[in-house]
Structures are given as structure tokens and as C-alpha cells.
């Protein structure tokens, strides 16, 4: 309360006037005090908001977070990433804020960036009610992050141009001319994860040779999986690499497309989940734990499965509640690459790609 405000109150209390006027002055003082208390409460409420940095598409994630807010009464402040920077923008921001964290919970749309945050000491471990639902290959062994709601790397095929079989897809990649095949620039997103898997399983030299070879044979490189999907759906390319979420958007638009899962050299699928983690020294640890438990629940995984992106649950769910297209993808989750095994390959591969594309 300011000195001038106290002075006004004293003057109002000592001023000689009729009883009605004196009562009005008291009421005015009470209203003013309540106003100050209200401002103080709202300021504290803003500080008590659970701050979530979210790299998953807002069209799917914001409704989930707002429902958490309504169901629990915990106010949530969301900061989304941009499509241009994918999840790397928020990862870099969290590293920069490490000593003075603003964020409580990080919802990433992939895993490798979250692993990087663990290495930089940005995260705190948590193994709550949802942790044990998730298979070991899709969670950090010490609880620093946990995966949920996954996408699969797939070959999207225009069936007006090619048959969607593994044999036909392999033959297309083995052909001399790759000008009808599209891939995304591997500096970002799930294409970077794909390259990291190849680096880890093939080794550095073989991946570099393969990368140079496919570019020499005219492969179409574009900015993002969505562009790959658009080119194939429109028949401008015969096939390409993308993710299941983009593939299903093409299906919903009535495009003549089918998909086959991309296989790593080991024969495993490349399954890329969302991940959730708690930021070290966050202001609202208990509230953060409640959100992590919520996101790792069966209900949220089912909800993401029923969204347009048809994300594949990692934990046990009631199969009868899954859309048929998602149910068909479930076996591929069990065949996925152990993402914990590619963290070092990811660092090395990204360093090379940055130098390769800076030239």
C-alpha cells in the first residue's frame, strides 16, 4: 500500500462530515483495499501457472492441455514451437534458460532433443504412474523422459504410379533415376532421427556415401515431411519418406496413397514418440508431476490415436477403442529401434549434417 493511499485513508477517516458521508468513505476505503488484494492475488496466480513448452502441433496438443486445466483446476501457460524450427527452437531455449528455468514441463514431439536436454543437465527424473505403462525402449532408464503417442517413419506411395509393396519400393530406390522420390532435408525432425539410425547401424562412412549417391541420382529434397506428402499425393513424385501423421492427412484428403513402414538396416521399424519431461529446479514440481501422469495415461494416448494424426499408443490400451488404421500400426511399435541406443550417433550425425548443409 503506497504512502499516498495511506494518507488518503487517514484524511477520509478524520474529516468531519455527516454520518452518511462517513459511511460512504469507509465503503470506498474497503473497495479500494479489496481492489489491491485482487491485484495481488492475480499477480500470485500468474506466478502459479504451470508453464509448458510444447513442440507438438498445437491443433492436437492445446486441447489436451486445456482439458487438463479444466479437470484439475491447475492453470496452464503454453509456449509453442514454430514449424520452421521444429522442436530445436524450444530445446535451445531450455538450454539457454538452464540456470533460471521458466518452464516446468517440456512436451516434445520427438525424443532425441529431449535426450540432449538430459545431457545438458536441464531435466529432473520422474517415474510416476504412467512411466511403467511405456515399454523400456521408449523411456529413459532413469526416468528423465518418457515417450507416448508415437509416429512411424513410412514410405508413402502414390498407388496411381506404383504398387505399395516393399519389393517395389526397394526397386525404386535401387534404380538409377531418383527424380520421382522425395525426402525431407535431414537437419530437422524425424528425418534427422532417421539419419541418426542409419549412422548408428551403417556407420559414418556408409551413410555419407549413400547420402552423396542418392543426391547424385537426383532425389528430390524438400523442406519438411508435409511437402513430401503433398508431392506424392499430387502425383508429382511416385513415393517418398514421411511420417504416419502426414500420411493420414493425405488419406483424409482422398489422395490415392498407401504406406509401408520404413525399416532400419537391422529390420526394425523407426517409431518416434512424443516425449515428456520435467525441467530441473522448476517452480511447480508437484503440479508438473500431475501433468506428466496425465499425458502418460491410457486416456490421453487413446485421444491422440483418435485425432487426425492417428498417433500410435505405446502403452497398454483397450484395443477396441482404437481406430482401425491405428490398430493395424500397433505391431510396428513392438518392432521399433531402441532410441536410447542412438543418442551418440545423433550428435555425430547432426554435426556432420550441419557442416554438409552450411557449404
Question: How is this structure best described in words?
Answer:
With 359 residues, the chain is of the alpha/beta class. The chain has 3 domains: 3-46; 49-148 and 273-321, D-Maltodextrin-Binding Protein, domain 2 (3-Layer(aba) Sandwich); 151-269, Periplasmic binding protein-like II (D-Maltodextrin-Binding Protein, domain 2, 3-Layer(aba) Sandwich), CATH 3.40.190. Helices cover 48% and strands 15% of the residues. It has 14 helices and 10 strands. It has helices at residues 3-14, 19-47, 58-72, 88-96, 112-119, 166-174, 189-202, 204-216, 225-233, 244-252, 285-295, 298-306, 324-334, 343-358, and strands spanning 50-54, 76-80, 105-108, 123-124, 146-158, 181-184, 220-222, 239-243, 257-261, 271-279. Strands 1, 2, 3, 4, 5, 6, 7, 8, 9 and 10 form a 10-stranded mixed beta sheet that branches. The chain is globular. It starts with a helix and ends with a helix. The model is unreliable at 1-28 and 30-46 (pLDDT under 50).
Shape: globular
Q: List the domain count as a whole number.
A: 3
Tally of alpha and pi helices: 14
Strand content: 15-25%
Largest sheet: 10 strands, mixed
Roughly how many Å apart are the termini? 61 Å
Give me the CATH superfamily of the largest domain: Periplasmic binding protein-like II
